[in-house]
Amino acid sequence: MIIRKIGIDGFGKFHRTAFEFQPGINLIYGENEAGKTTCEQFLIGMLYDVEKLRGKGAKNDVYNRYYPEYGGKYGGMMEFSIGGVDYRVQRQFRREQKDVHLYELKTGREIPIEKELCNTCSFMPKEQFMETLCMNPGQIRTGNYLREELNRYSHRISASGTAQFDAGEAIRSLLTQKRRNQKRQAKEQLLSLKTELGDFDNLDEKKQILVAEEQRLELQIQRLKEQEKEGQEQLFHREKELEEERKKKILEEYEQEKQAELKREQDKIKLEQWLTDDKIDHRDEKTKQEEEDVLVEEEDISEGIGLPLIALACLLAGFAGLWQHWMVPAIIMIVVGVILLLFGLFTRNREKNLSDVGSMVQLEGESKQQQDGIKRETHNPYQTLKPEFLEIEERIKKELASFDGQDESSEKVKKEMELIRAKIVDCERELFDNQMKQKYLLEKENNKKHLKNRYQELREEIQKTEESNRATELAVSVLQELSASIYSEFGTSFNQEVSDIMEAITDHRYERVLIDEQMGIQVEQNGKFLGIDHVSLGTTEQIYFAIRMAAGKLFEKGEPLPILIDDVFGSFDEQRLGRTLSFLSECGHPQVFLFTCNSRIRDILINQRTDFSYLEL
Hints:
Layout: E1 2-11, E2 14-20, E3 24-29, H1 36-48, H2 62-65, E4 75-82, E5 85-92, E6 99-104, E7 110-111, H3 117-121, H4 126-131, E8 134-135, H5 144-160, H6 167-184, H7 187-199, H8 203-303, H9 306-323, H10 327-378, H11 381-384, H12 386-401, H13 408-446, H14 448-506, E9 513-515, E10 521-525, E11 528-531, H15 537-555, E12 563-566, H16 574-586, E13 591-596, H17 600-607, E14 612-616
Parallel strand pairs: 3-13, 3-14, 8-12, 12-13
Antiparallel strand pairs: 1-2, 1-4, 4-5, 5-6, 6-7, 9-10, 10-11
Helix pairs in contact: 5-14, 6-14, 7-14, 8-10, 8-12, 8-13, 9-10, 14-15, 14-16
C-alpha cells in the first residue's frame, strides 16, 4: 500500500488541511506540539477507525484527545494505491455519525466494505499492525499480544506448513466446546424428572385422598353456613324484642313528660291572663286622665294664638313711627313685637310636641291592646310545647339509632357466629388448596408421557456429551504433546530474521538473538548469551525494533502496510541511527513514515544520499 494524500476536515489541531506523500521514506519534521503525532494518529484512524472507549478510560482515549479543536467534521479522506489501483476512503469519526466509504478513483465506483477496511483491502488487523509496524515513543517494547500471535503463527507453520492452520486456536476451540458441553449437561434435570416420574406410581391414591378430603370440607362448610344462618335469625329476633321494649319504655317517659309540660304551660297561661286583665283596668284610668290633660292644653294653645297678633301690631306701629320719624318709640315697638313673635312661636312648637306625644301614647295603647287580644285568641299550649317536643323526639331517635341490642344473650350469639365465620374461612382456604393440588396432579398426569420422552432424550444427550468430552480431552492431549516441539521448528527461522536485522544495525556487534515461546530474549556477545536486562536501553530498543520488523514481515497478509515510526530513535547513537535508516531504505518496504523533531535524521539521510520526501509542519 502506498498512501498518496490525506485531507483532514477536523482532527485535533488540524482543520481543512491536506498533505501529500511519496513512496519510500517520508520524513515529517516538526518541533514539539507541531502536530506530528496527530498526523500519525489520523493515518491510523483512516486505516482502522477511531474507537471511543467506555467507562473511566473514555476521558483520555484517542477519540476525545483528537476531537477537532477548531471545528469542522471529525474525519477526512485518504487516497492510496494497492496493486497499481488508486482508491479514496472517506471517514467520519463522530460516534453518533460514524460513516466510511471506499471509492475507486478512476471509475468513481463505490466499493462495498466488508465489516472493516482491512478485510476489504486485505491487510493485517489493527492489533498486529500496532504491535509490529507502528512504533511510538515509550511503546516500542512488545506486549503479550505479539507473543500469542507468534505462538499461533508458529503452530500453524509447524503443523501444516502454512499459516492458515492454527493449532493453538484449535486447542482453545476444543476446550471451549468441552466447557459448553459441561454447561449443557442435564444430570440435574434428569434427576428431577426421575423423581417426578416416581411420583406417578401413587398418583391415583393421592387423587382419591384429595377427592375425599374435598367432599369432607364441602359438607363441613355447608353445616357451618347453616349454623351461621340460625344464629343470625336468633340474633335478629332477640334484637327485635329488645328494640320493642326500649321503644315502649321511651314512649312512656315521653307521655309522662309531655303531660307535665302541658300542665306547667296551662298554669303559666292562667297567670299571664290575670296579669293582662289588671293592666287593662289600669290603662283605662290612665287614658281618661290623659284626655283631660289634652283638653286643658288645647285651651292654653287657643289662648296662645293672640300673642303673634299682638307682636304683629307692635311691628306695624314701629314701622309706622319710623315712617313719621319717631325714632325712639318706633324702635321700642319693633323690639317688643319681635320678642312677642318669638315667644309665640316657641309656645306653639311646645304644644305641637305635646300633641304628638299624646297621639303616640294613645296609638301604642291601642296596638298593645290589639296584640293582647290576638294572643288570647291564637294561644295554643301545644304550640308552646313544640320546641320541647322536638327536643324529646330527637333524643328518642338518637337512642333508638344507637340501640345495638347488647345484652348477655346477644353477645354470646355474636361470639359464636364469629367463630363459625372463622371456621368457614379456614375450610374454604383448605378447599382451595385441595383443588390446586388436584389441578397439579391432573397436569402431571397429562404430562406423564411427555416427561418419559424427555427423560429418555436427556439420557441420550448426556451419553453423547460424555463421549464428545472424552474425544475432546484426547485431542487436546495430543495437541499439547506436539506443541512443545512446534515452536523450536519455527523459532529457528524467526530468530534468524531478528538476528540479521540486529547484525545490520549494530555492525556485527550482536550477531545472534534467541527468543523463546514466552518472548524471553537473549543476545550473544563475545560467545556469551546475555539477558535483555543486561544490555543498554538503546540496545534494548534496537532489539525490539528488530523483533517488530521481523514479525511485521511474517504477518504480512496481502498488501503490506506503511511503517509508522514516531521519534523512537532517541536512544540510538549516531552510527546505529545511520545504520537503522540505511536498513529502512534498503529493506524493500514500499513506504516508511518517520515523524521526528530531531534534525540530525535529515542530515544523515542527505549524507547517505538516500531518496526521501520531506515535509515540515
